[in-house]
Amino acid sequence: MSCGCEKTAPVACGCLKITIGNCVANFDVCSHNGREVQWVDLAEFLPRVRLVARGVPDDVALEFINAAGVRFARTTGVLKRRAVVDIQAEVQDYFVQAGEHEQIYRMDTVQQCGNVQWQFQPPDKIWLEKMPCADVPRGLLFEYTALPVQAACAVDKLLFDYYQDGIVAGALAELLLMRQYDFADPQMAVVYEQKYKLAVNAAMIDLAKGFDNRQMFIAGKSKRI
């Protein structure tokens, strides 16, 4: 029986790894109806945070930006991923790992190809209920929701391009409560928390509409993409 190493498919986006034993399974991955995942350095969020939280150390700002990004992604569920996996004969266990920048928050849906029945066994195992007798190309399709990892250095570019306002607002809503800094302003923290919630609502509208390729709803305004 082949372990499948000779069929390894490199995945450019780096957001997922599926292994069989010590080998990488053959699979395709995408997100948001085929949008290839791209990454942006978390430091790209810094300039707008510094404008308000003047003098904040970069390491502190980045910690709060990352926390806001994790919170935003968890609340909205916008970081959708889809993988299509080649099933291999006589292999029942498939282990799913996110890339270095993300973690798997939850498994969402599955489409069974070739009458394949499976279960997800947290935190990372897909188990086929019946031992496959033969290879099934593209036999397993699953969708999951991702989150940035704690202390991430980069995030999905989607968060920066379309939800930067919300993540910056979420970071400032917490930073402005830190009374040890001169920029502390609890009243403005409340304002930024409201801005964050507006961005969350907008993102959830995007998700409900299936991320229409023609436009996305950004903080109450339509934005062409």
Write up what this structure looks like:
The protein is an alpha+beta fold and 225 residues long. The protein starts with 15 loop residues before the first strand and ends with a strand. It has helices at residues 46-52, 58-76, 157-175, 186-208, and strands spanning 16-20, 23-24, 27-30, 39-41, 80-87, 93-98, 102-112, 118-121, 125-128, 136-148, 154-156, 215-218, 221-224. A hairpin with a 2-residue loop joins strand 12 and strand 13 (221-224). 30% of the residues lie in helices and 32% in strands. The radius of gyration is 20 Å and the shape is elongated. Helix 1 runs parallel beside helix 3 (157-175). The chain contains 4 helices and 13 strands. It has a 5-stranded antiparallel β-sheet, with no helix packed on it. The protein has a 4-stranded antiparallel β-sheet with strand order 3-5-10-7. Strands 4-11 form a two-stranded antiparallel sheet.
